[in-house]
User: Fold this.
Amino acid sequence: MTQWFLDRTFRSSSGDEVRWAALGEEQREQGDAPAVVLLHGTPFSSYVWRGAARALAVRHRVFVWDMPGYGASEMREGQDVSLGAQARVFGELLAHWELDGEAARPAVVAHDFGGCVALRAHLLHGARYERLALVDPVALAPWGSPTYRLLGAHPEVFGQLPPELHRALVREYVSSASHPGLHPAVLDRLVEPWCTAEGQPAFYRQIAQNDQRFTDEIQGRYGEIELPTLICWGAQDNWIPVAKGHELASRIPGSRLHVVEGAGHLVQEDAPAELTAALAEFMRTGR
Assistant:
């Protein structure tokens, strides 16, 4: 499968080592094409954006990163990996990338709980974007499947599973995010970070910390969003049903909903061409 390597490191104010990469650096001087920042969700990493990132880098500078506690970034005991903490780190990264000024506002594309991170950074911390694309985002209560809530309620129990049982659980859970099914090599890549000595407790830690209050604090403010906003949703998403997409579109003024048939929650893997085309058109036109 496609190689994916985050070759740069940022140290957040909380001390976490965050791995990131930039693609399309030669586009830096193109004033008509905003930089694009891609945010992943849980329990994934920036790897899910590998195809879209390379395609968008033809015209844009593209920034990808693994959130603290995910993928190639640092995982450690006692780490704050809540949605509130991730939004603060995201704001720090925008400043580090010099994308926090009026003339340097990026286009932001956010999947799953990355959607909540991007929305919190914008609504609570003043992060400014050129436009915003939300892909099957965690944005409206209630969210979290019964399995997700069970794992989050008992992290100390599930954290003691023998490694082979833990791996089987994670594989089954990640697999359920796809409607047609994931390529075995892609599934291996998504599961592997959670199957190390640091990764197993980190998997349950991030679920335990992702409380619904982080969306409760912002969902009443979606009417304040004045950005061009695209909402993409897998028609067969069984993690967050497409009805939530229709509801979210009704709450964000002027937003447009694009439903992707045949795709589950991981639209990037289930319908990569259609999703990338929709994102590229949105980056070009704002529609």
About this structure: The first strand starts at residue 8 and ends at 11. Residues 83-96 form the longest helix (14 residues).
